[in-house]
Amino acid sequence: MVEPKYVAPTGTSDILSPEVERRNCIVDKARRLLGLYCYQEMIVPTFEHTELFVRGIGEATDIVSKEMYTFGDQKGSSFALRPEATSGIVRAFIEHSLYTKSMPQKYFCIGPMFRKEKPQAGRYREFYQIDVELLGAEQPSADAEVIALLMHIFQDLGLKNLTLKLNSMGCRICRAPYREELVGYLRKVEKGLCRNCRERIKKNPLRVFDCKVEGCRHLLREAPELISVLCAQCQEHFEEVKKYLGVMGPDYELDPKVVRGLDYYTRSVFEVVSPSLGAQNVIGAGGRYDYLVEDCGGPPIAGLGFAIGIDRTSLAMKRSGLKGLEFLPALTIEILS
Length: 337
Ligand SMILES: [Zn+2]
Ligand SMILES: [Zn+2]
Fold this sequence. Notes:
This is Histidine--tRNA ligase. It is an enzyme of class 6 (ligase). InterPro entries: aa-tRNA-synth_II, aa-tRNA-synth_II/BPL/LPL, His-tRNA-ligase, HisRS-like_core, HisRS/HisZ. The protein is of the alpha+beta class. The protein has two domains: 19-170 and 231-336, BirA Bifunctional Protein, domain 2 (2-Layer Sandwich), CATH 3.30.930; 172-227, no CATH class. It has helices spanning 19-36, 50-57, 62-66, 86-95, 140-156, 172-188, 195-203, 214-220, 232-248, 292-295, 310-319, 330-336; strands at 40-41, 47-49, 70-72, 78-81, 105-114, 126-135, 163-168, 253-254, 266-273, 282-288, 303-309. The strands form two sheets. The chain has an eight-stranded mixed sheet with strand order 1-5-6-11-10-9-7-8. It has a three-stranded antiparallel sheet with strand order 2-4-3. Strand 3 and strand 4 form a beta hairpin. The model has no long low-confidence stretch (mean pLDDT 92).
């Protein structure tokens, strides 16, 4: 064996058999189920104008401020490799005037995303997602339908014992006073917080809930929770979502600490956690984003969706002894097993 002269960049990987087959199984099954739910596939570019992500995801988020791969062209334009797919789909939805057609509209997109993350188990710089978006649906039943679809995909893959965590991020009306209340609390405990969190107080206080530092997590146990100060409309919306979920099936846990790391989320947010993974155990997550289409220059159209992490889902399947070979021709299964 020779010492390789070139190796794959940190945070990327070569996907070889039988991993490829398991991933293809995830994608095939999801694609089939999404078709049954009347979702249409959309292929959007792997890079966009940087400005789109800054506006959509939020300037003060870790994704935009630290984790994007950006590059320029000869004309001085700035582009970024997509760190997530929702912004691109929303951009395409506006650019092609898809909002003029009847609502709601359902799209999905499958492909690689890129984030300059600190490499660690379960975190990759190039990672693969199945991204699902439902546009033009304001009613709480849509939240429940999207969550049920997400759980349906995992169930179809044979994954068991998953935990669905649910929270509400409120709206512009209830989030502003909450933000002030949270900042007041954080100022009181500022000395005990890590440097990142102290920085977040000024720029994006809600992000402190993403912090993995034990000292911060301990202090945040006593922090005020948005869920208890929701405005009447958000409260009602959340109650309805829970009611529909109760009828439709997927069990959930309320977790007021679930705040997705993107600014565009409003109201329902959710995460699906696999017990077989370590610290990076979220295999699917999403939420509602009622202002995003408008923020990206479109009409005021509500939206919601989720992303499934293909890498982590595949790892969770592997650890559960699931090969995912069901879609392969018999001969290939024989060769692989
Ligand atoms: Zn509200
Ligand atoms: Zn911290």
